[in-house]
Amino acid sequence: MSDYIMELRKIVGHRPLLQVGASVIVEDEKGRILLQRRSDNHCWGYCGGSVELDETVEDAAKRELFEETGLTANRLELFGVFSGKDLHYIYPNGDEVSNIDIVYICRDYTGTLQKQEQEVEELKFFAFSEIPAELSPPIRKPLMQWVELQKEKAGGSSL
Fold first, then answer.
1. Which of 15, 52, 103, 121 could form a disulfide with 79 if both were Cys (CB 3.0 to 4.6 A apart)?
2. Do 146 and 25 form a contact (C-beta atoms < 8 A)?
3. In what residue span(s) does the Nudix hydrolase domain sit (predicted)?
């Protein structure tokens, strides 16, 4: 969790916060997606987190990717900006957020996979047809949009 959000939580407790996130969908050379099993809700999701004060969204995305996976993004491509009720979430600890998630695709990266012990239980690449059902709720909408694009590229294959 970002330092900024942690400081706000000291003031507002669990009340809803508008939270700006920067996220990265990593695709390998086989078109598979890197997902992480989160340690807070034990669901799968892509890499990402809150943008710090005065940090650019792209820098936040790169930082979160490196912190959570050990990978360095050499190039990011904007995938989309997601918001609304589908991204409203209450964390297992009771913190409530209304997320605005700026999601990037990264196909150009370097490094060796290494999970962040505090936040990540497991890192694994999945084909779009093998995406696990246990997805973290706030990433479901953007990830399903990514899956639909992969289906179109594959000629309409289904999950």
1. 103
2. yes
3. 17-148
Residue among 98, 96, 97, 101 at smallest CA distance from 57: 101
Q: Which two structure tokens, joined as six digits, stand for 132?
A: 């696990």
pLDDT score recorded for residue 134: 96
106, 76 in Cβ contact below 8 A?
Answer: yes
Query: Which residue do the tokens 């990830």 mark?
Result: 143
Encode 91-112: b = buried (16+ Cβ within 10 Å), e = exposed: eeeebebebbbbbbbbeebeee
List, in sequence order, every beta strand (DSSP E) within the chain. 17-26, 33-38, 44-45, 47-50, 71-82, 88-90, 96-111, 120-126
For 51-92, how does the pLDDT look when each residue is reduced to its tens digit (9 = 90+)?
Answer: 999 999 999 999 999 999 999 999 999 999 999 999 999 999
**Residue written as token pair 């409203």:** 88
